[in-house]
Design brief:
With about 280 residues, this protein is of the alpha/beta class. Helix content is about 45%, strand content about 25%. The chain contains ten helices and 13 strands. A five-stranded mixed β-sheet has the order 10-9-11-8-12. A three-stranded parallel β-sheet has the order 5-1-6. The longest helix has 21 residues, at about 1-20. The two termini are about 35 Å apart. Residues about 1-20 have low confidence and may be disordered.
Length: about 280
Amino acid sequence: MIRIALALLAFLVAASVAQAQALDGRLKKIAETKTVNIAYRADAMPFSYTNDNKAIAGFTIDLCKRVVNSIGRQLNVQDLKINWVLVTVQTRFDAVAKGQADMECGSSTVTLARMKQVDFSSYTFVESTGLLVKATSGVRSFADLAGKRIAVIAGTTNERAINAQLKRRQLTATVVPVKSSDEALAALESGKADAFASDKLLLVGASEKSKDPRSFALLPESLSFEPYGIALPRGDAAMRLAVNTGLAQIYGSGEIAEIFDSWFAPFGPPSDVMQMVYIMGAIPE
C-alpha cells in the first residue's frame, strides 16, 4: 500500500514538474509576476472605453476579466492581477507584439494582414462597417454619399471597406482619413464630413457621447464583415490556448449570455451569426 502511495506521489510530482517545465512565453511571466498586462482602448464604447467615472469598462473588458480568472485557475495562481495598458487604434497591436501587453481587449477585427504581427483568440463578436450621418442631411443610403466626404479612421478595416464599396459600386466620394473617432465625429458635426464610417456599435457609442445623440442617424446598410478577437502574442501557442480555454469555458457555461445582455439587451438578442460564434467557440476539453 505504501509503495502504491509513493508511486502515486512520484507520478504527481513528475507531472507537476513536467507542467512547470512546459510553462513558457507570456504564461511563464504571468505566473511569475501574478500579473496580466491588458491593452485597452479609451474610445471604443461599448467594447473598451473609459466611462464617466474614469473606470475601464466595456463588453470585451468584462469578457477579458473572466478570461483572466480562468488563466489564474489554469496556472493555479490565486488573485491574478490586471495591469491596464492604454493604447490607441494606431498602437494596439504594437503593444502586444513588443511585450508591453499580454493581450489587447478592444474591438479589433481579425485579419490575415494583422496575423503577420499578432495572433488572435477565438472570435468574441461579429460586427460590420456602418455609416453615421446627420439626421437632417437627407442621406439615407451609401449611394447618397456620391460626391460627398466620408470620415474614417486611417488604417482600419473600415477604411478598406469603404474604399472597396466605392470601387465596387463605381461611386465617387472623398475619403477623409482621421486619427480617432472623436476627430471623425467633430468633422461630421462641423460639416467637414458628410458621414462617419466605423463599426456600427462604435458609431452608436460615439454618437451617445455627443451633446445631442438624436441629431445623428445610423444608416441601415452593412458594408463589411468584422469578426472581433483578442489580440495575442504571435507564435505563443500556450498563451493562445490559455485564452481560448477561458473563452470556451465562458461560452460553454452560458456566462456569455449574461455578459452580452448586460451590454446589448436594448439591441435585442444575439443574432444567429453571434450565437454560432459562441457555439463554435465553446471548444470541448
